[in-house]
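Subject: design request, 164 residues
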């Protein structure tokens, strides 16, 4: 049997709410990776010239909530990874939780039809709303994988990646 799927049907493969829950699953896992680091190594340890994981976490923080705010409000924000207030693991975890809460607040304000609109994230990155959100998620996965390498090289078992 040959079935044709319309654009409208294809758009219903995953709902906005399901996409948010998927991302939050990744955010929860990344949070557990941050928690797994010893304080000093979170900020100082690196492998092969990569940045310490705290710097990667700050990048993720600089993207997530500001990116969703921009999608909702249309106000362009500069990408700012210099989170000077994040000087301890507790600071990063607190900001991580605040960012997740902000995503939760703003997400329901994204109408479904907006997901296919073109935007210029942070005034530099062109794409649709959905491709931009996918980038946020993909970037988090990429950096979390670097965190896994760091943890393993420190002799620390990272959280199971499938437990989201």
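Subject: RE: design request

Done. Sequence follows.
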């Amino acid at each position: 049997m040959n079935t044709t799927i319309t654009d409208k049907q294809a758009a219903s493969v995953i709902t906005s709410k399901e996409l948010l829950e998927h991302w939050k699953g990744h955010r929860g896992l990344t949070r557990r990776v941050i928690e797994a680091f010893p304080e000093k190594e979170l900020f100082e340890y690196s492998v092969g010239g990569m940045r310490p994981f705290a710097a990667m976490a700050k990048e993720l923080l600089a993207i997530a909530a500001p990116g969703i705010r921009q999608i909702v409000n249309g106000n362009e924000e500069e990408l700012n990874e210099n989170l000077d207030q994040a000087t301890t693991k507790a600071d990063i975890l607190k900001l991580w939780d605040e960012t997740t809460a902000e995503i939760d607040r703003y997400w329901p304000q994204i109408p479904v039809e907006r997901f296919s609109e073109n935007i210029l994230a942070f005034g530099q990155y062109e794409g649709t709303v959905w491709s931009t959100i996918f980038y946020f998620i993909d970037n988090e996965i990429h950096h979390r994988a670097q965190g896994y390498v760091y943890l393993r090289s420190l002799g620390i078992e990272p959280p199971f990646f499938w437990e989201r």
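The longest strand covers residues 118-121.
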